[in-house]
Each structure stands twice: as structure tokens, then as C-alpha cells.
Design a protein that fits this description.
- The complex is a heterodimer of chains A (93) and B (213).
- Chain A has 93 residues and is an all-alpha fold.
- Chain A contains three helices and no strands.
- Chain A has one domain.
- In chain B, α1 runs antiparallel to α5 and α5 runs antiparallel to α6.
- The chains are: A mainly alpha (93), B mainly alpha (213).
- Chains A and B meet through α1, α2 and α3 of A and α1, α3 and α6 of B.
């Protein structure tokens, strides 16, 4: 497997810390109703950076991409189909 | 028979094939972990949707300072972990050991900060139960139930990570990891970065959303 240069790791780390600062700062401002969406979007970007570079998936085989994606795709199905129920039927809790 | 100690098991043709098998196996394990934590994340999403005001109020009682410091600590530990794997790939045992040690210390630091935070919650009666401080809004207990379960489960994963990395640091002094064979480091790294990713989502959900609404 291709080795990633340490310089790239430092760049990704700096980006992650910048995103942490951004998400912390944006939480101080009332963006209602977008606070939650912005915070989750930033978390998704951070996750993608970690998976692609720190976890080397960017340089992995096609099969690695499928294995790495499978769990998250199942989680999306899990959450979306459950919400499908809770968002469309009133007072089932 | 080569005189060099080879790590290739007999069922594999090449070291790359063997490493790929390990990588796919570890990603399969991580998929089960995603769904393990996923159940709690789904519970959070549903209850937050059902009781938005109670969740907003309760989340303002978490410590933003501790949470932010811990996020920075874990992100940095992912960097040192990635550098440890890199050192193993380049057969540099000394810097491998140092980066593993740095990762272990950062992980321990994370748990210390988490412990201080838990202590504050106990002192403020934010632990669900008879003495719960926000009893006037009963649904805030649901938030703290999820808070302690999710951060607690994550904390156990950090502890396991410290154990795995300690064993690797110990082994790395006698077994020589190299560009040919460094699979255990690569696998421990995948696990460690996953633990980091879980926290990347816990941080906004438990500390940030509704902080200033």
C-alpha cells in the first residue's frame, strides 16, 4: 500500500482542528433552525477526512470502500426508516 | 526456506493479500461497531425530536469547555496514531514507540478530563435518579441517560484502545515491524480512528446543538 507523507497527516490534523474551532464558534450563534444541520454537516466532513486519510481508505481497494461504507449505509437506513415512522405518525411516543 | 522471519501465513499467496484480508475483517468489525453505537444515536435522534425543549435545556448543563478540550485531544491522538503507523511502515522502531506512547498518553488525558466532567455532573446532581436536579422537567433525565450511556460506552472503547496500544508498544520492542509487516499497527490505527469518529459525532450532539438557542 502507498504510504502517506507525514506532512499530509499534519495538514489533515490542522483542518480537523480548524473545523472543531468553526463548529464551536458557530454553536455560540443562534442560527435557528440551522444550528443542528451546520453542526452535523461539519461532523460529517471531519469523519470523511479521518476515514479517507487517517484510515487510508482513499488509497484502498474498491472492496475496502465497500466494506468501509457498508456499516454507515446500514446506519443511514436504520435511522431514516425509523424516523419515517416517528415523523409521520403523531404521538406514538 | 528463507532465514528472514516471514509473517506470511500459509493460506495466503502474498503479504498484500494477507493485509487486505485483515483490513476487510477489521472494517467488518467496525461495521458492527457502527450499528452498536447506531442504536444509541437513533434513540437520541428520536427522543430529541420528541422532546426538543427538554433536550435543549439539558444539553446546556454539559461542560462545553471539557467537551471541546477532549475533542482536540482525540483529534490530536488520531494524528499521533497515524504517525505511529507511518513509522512502522518505514521500520523506524524508536519513533513508532514514541508515537504509540504519545497516543496512549493523549487517550489517558481524554479519560482524565472525562472523569473531571463526570465528577462535576455528580456534584451537580445531573445523574438520572432520585436526586436528579432538573426533576421539574422530567424528560431532561432522558437526555442525561443517553449522555452517560453514550459517553460511557465510548469511554470503555477508549480504555480498550489504551490496552491494545500498550500491548503493541510492548511488542514493538521485541518484534520488528517493517514496511513488509505492520498489519497489527494498521489495524489498531483503524480501531483508534473509529473511536475518534464516534466522539466527533457525540461532541456536537451532546454539547453544541441548542447551546445558544
Amino acid at each position: 500500500m502507498k504510504t502517506v507523507s507525514p506532512k499530509l497527516y499534519f495538514i489533515i490534523w490542522a483542518l480537523l482542528l480548524a473545523l472543531l474551532f468553526a463548529t464551536w464558534g458557530l454553536a455560540q450563534i443562534n442560527l435557528r433552525p440551522f444550528n443542528g444541520i451546520v453542526a452535523m454537516a461539519i461532523a460529517l466532513v471531519k469523519m470523511t477526512l479521518i476515514i479517507l486519510y487517517f484510515m487510508h481508505v482513499r488509497y484502498g481497494s474498491r472492496l475496502t470502500w465497500i466494506f468501509a461504507g457498508a456499516g454507515f449505509i446500514w446506519l443511514a437506513i436504520f435511522i431514516l426508516l425509523t424516523l419515517n415512522d416517528y415523523l409521520t405518525r403523531r404521538s406514538i411516543l | 526456506m528463507s532465514e528472514v522471519r516471514t509473517a506470511l501465513a500459509e493460506q495466503f499467496d502474498t503479504l498484500e493479500q494477507q493485509e487486505e484480508a485483515s483490513r476487510l475483517g477489521l472494517w467488518t468489525f467496525l461495521a458492527t461497531e457502527v450499528l452498536f453505537f447506531g442504536g444509541l444515536f437513533t434513540a437520541y435522534v428520536i427522543y430529541r425530536h420528541a422532546y426538543p425543549q427538554a433536550f435543549a435545556e439539558a444539553s446546556r448543563h454539559t461542560s462545553l469547555l471539557y467537551g471541546t478540550i477532549n475533542t482536540a485531544i482525540l483529534l490530536t491522538s488520531s494524528l499521533t496514531m497515524a504517525l505511529a503507523v507511518h513509522a512502522a511502515q518505514e521500520s523506524r522502531s524508536k519513533s513508532l514507540f514514541r508515537f504509540l506512547l504519545a497516543t496512549i498518553l493523549l487517550a489517558a488525558g481524554f479519560l482524565v478530563v472525562k472523569g473531571l466532567e463526570y465528577h462535576e455532573h455528580f456534584a451537580d446532581h445531573l445523574v438520572p435518579g432520585a436526586a436528579f436536579a432538573l426533576a421539574a422537567r422530567p424528560k431532561t433525565q432522558l437526555f442525561f441517560w443517553l449522555y452517560f450511556t453514550m459517553t460511557g460506552l465510548h469511554g470503555i472503547h477508549v480504555l480498550v484502545g489504551i490496552g491494545v496500544l500498550s500491548v503493541l508498544a510492548w511488542i514493538s520492542s521485541r518484534l520488528h515491524f517493517s514496511s513488509e509487516y505492520h498489519t497489527p499497527l494498521e489495524m489498531a490505527g483503524l480501531y483508534w480512528h473509529f473511536v475518534d469518529i464516534v466522539w466527533v459525532f457525540l461532541y456536537p450532539l451532546l454539547y453544541l446543538i441548542d447551546r445558544n438557542v
